[in-house]
Every structure is written in structure tokens, then in C-alpha cells.
Specification:
CATH topology: Immunoglobulin-like
Structural class: mainly beta
Shape: globular
CATH class: Mainly Beta
CATH superfamily: F-spondin domain
Radius of gyration: 16 Å
Order of helices and strands: EEEEHHEEEEEEEHE
Number of strands: 12
Number of helices: 3
Distance between the termini: 17 Å
CATH architecture: Sandwich
């Protein structure tokens, strides 16, 4: 069953208490991939994390090329809904879900999606907050077989859809940090293509000592559950 969930634009956060926890969502009855994501940053929160199982050839973006509007909405506002809807309508996608909650630094969450036959690839994506348009991603990778475990360390990406002014007026995040806008269709001042994120430099309202990172930003461990 394909699940679709639209997360509120982060500028409208009802900020949940960030408890130390490991949870599993998206579990079904058939064979599954369990995707365990750990936040390796010191001062970035992950928005709800999109996870999809699909056939080979499904990708979320091409490095060096412009991001889709759906990816832009995830990277600027943490809104997984449009990208989940796009993926769920593709016959090459078996299941798409998200973790449903924020993931603070140092914490982990497990998300499960169905797999069978040629639906043996995984994609993962979530926004880093507070950033203008930062995110991390698995851009379509073949999942493990049998009892194998696949461990990946993911860098932060910049969607290239918003100027990195680091101003709270243009950054959605937990209210204790920023309460600015999320998605903005204007790409004025943006790089115009997806690239590795340059981090937080303290040029606006964000303090680099608190919010900057050195890649990787996330560890992902994928295993197959019979």
C-alpha cells in the first residue's frame, strides 16, 4: 500500500518535544527494507524523512541540474507531500512513506518500506533545518540481499533553489531557532542547480559554531526483513 502524508510547512511548526528514541514506521506484512537513519550533525534537525522503494532508474535529481519543484518544496520547507505524491503515481514505485516526525542531532529513526521482485531500490530524502534549502538524500540505490546490510554516510546537498542568506526571515525551523517562510517559488539569487552544500557561514542570523557541519550529515543502514 502506498502511503501519502503531507507534513505541515515548517514555518507552521507545532514543535514536538524531541525525545531520545528509535521508532519504526511504514511496516507491512510482506518482505521489507528497514532503513535506519542517524543524524550525525551537531546543530541541524532533520525534517520528516521520505523513504521510497522502487525499481532501478527512479532518481530524485541529477547533480549539476536544476531541482524539481517537488524537491524544492522538500529542501526549502521540509514538505514531503508533493514529492511523495509524485512518486506514488509512478508505476516504478512500490511504496513511499515518511518518518512522520523530526529527528534531532544524535538520534535515530527506522522506517520500513515494502520490497519485492524488481522493486529493490531505495531513495531517502529530508531537509536540514535551519538551512535555506539544504537536504540529504539517497538518490536511488540498490538495497541489500539476503542477510547483507548496507551502510551509507550521506553528505548535505544544496537544492540551488534559494539564496543562502542564512536569515531567519527565509528559513523555516523549530521556533526556538527561526520562524521564517518555507517554500518560495522565486529562485532569485540561487545557484540554479543541485550541489554539495557549503555549510553554515554565519553571514545572517545563524551562528556557524552552532549550526555548521562537516560532511557526512547522516548515517543510513539498510537491511532486508523477510
Amino acid at each position: 500500500m502506498i502511503k501519502t502524508r503531507t507534513w505541515q510547512t515548517i514555518s507552521g511548526f507545532i514543535f514536538v518535544t524531541l525525545l531520545s528514541m528509535v521508532s519504526a514506521v511504514g511496516a507491512g506484512d510482506g518482505p521489507q527494507f528497514e532503513v535506519m537513519i542517524t543524524n550525525l550533525t551537531r546543530g541541524q534537525v532533520f525534517t520528516p524523512i521520505l523513504v521510497a522503494s522502487h525499481e532501478s532508474g527512479v532518481i530524485l535529481f541529477t547533480p549539476g541540474q536544476p531541482a524539481s519543484v517537488e524537491l524544492e518544496m522538500l529542501a526549502e520547507a521540509g514538505d514531503t507531500g508533493p514529492l511523495m505524491t509524485l512518486l506514488s503515481r509512478m508505476p516504478e514505485v512500490l511504496e513511499v512513506t515518511d518518518s512522520g516526525t523530526l529527528l534531532p542531532p544524535g538520534e535515530s529513526v527506522a522506517v520500513r518500506v515494502e520490497t519485492r521482485g524488481g522493486f529493490d531500490h531505495i531513495s531517502v530524502a529530508a531537509m536540514l533545518v535551519p538551512t535555506n534549502d539544504g537536504f540529504f538524500v539517497i538518490n536511488g540505490i540498490k538495497g541489500p540481499r539476503g542477510n547483507e546490510t548496507l551502510t551509507l554516510f550521506l553528505p548535505g546537498y544544496d537544492a540551488g533553489t534559494e539564496a543562502n542568506d542564512e536569515l531567519c526571515a527565509s528559513i523555516p525551523a523549530p521556533p526556538t531557532v527561526c520562524t521564517g517562510e518555507g517554500f518560495n517559488a522565486s529562485r532569485t539569487g540561487a545557484e540554479g542547480y543541485v550541489h554539495i552544500h557549503a555549510g553554515i557561514h554565519g553571514i545572517g542570523d545563524l551562528i556557524a559554531a552552532d549550526r555548521d557541519w562537516r560532511n557526512p550529515v547522516a548515517q543510513v543502514i539498510i537491511r532486508r526483513i523477510p
